[in-house]
Amino acid sequence: MSTPAGSDSEQTRREIQQTRAQLGETVAALAAKTDVKTRFRTKATTAADELRQRVTQVSRSAKTTATQMTRTMSQKTSQRAKSVTRRAQQTTTAVRGSATAGTQTTGKAGSALVTSARAASTRIGGSIRAKPAPVLVATGAAASLAVMAYRRRRLR
Q1: What are the structural domain ranges in the chain?
Q2: Exposed site from 76, 97, 99, 116, fewest CB < 10 Å?
Q3: What is the pLDDT of residues 131-147, one digit of tens each?
Q4: CA pair distance 20, 74, nearest whole angstrom
């Protein structure tokens, strides 16, 4: 079984080329492992990208939470304002009624009106002191809206 000399040398050349390719890959892998500067840059870039993603996620979460809290406080403030408005209207009606009744019966409408007004302001003040947050939020919201309106007019 003799093989032609040409095919034997051809096979040897292929093996040499394959060995050179494997050796080149091995050298490249070793060079990559020893290139500390490039490895450090790669790790730093990866860490920076991860940090940016985390910051973006936290920012979105904070914005969502702030929006939800603002809506909740706005709703609570609105409800509290409606309640206070109803009480004020009732008190005003009662004061007017007392003033009218006082004028008709005793002639001392002035003192009845003052007493009734003091009682009304004491009740409203007490309810505000008991829960000041809605009033403060409403005041802050009104101030913010006023500033925004001022800025918009100024830009036009």
Answers
A1: 9-155
A2: 97
A3: 777 777 888 888 888 88
A4: 74
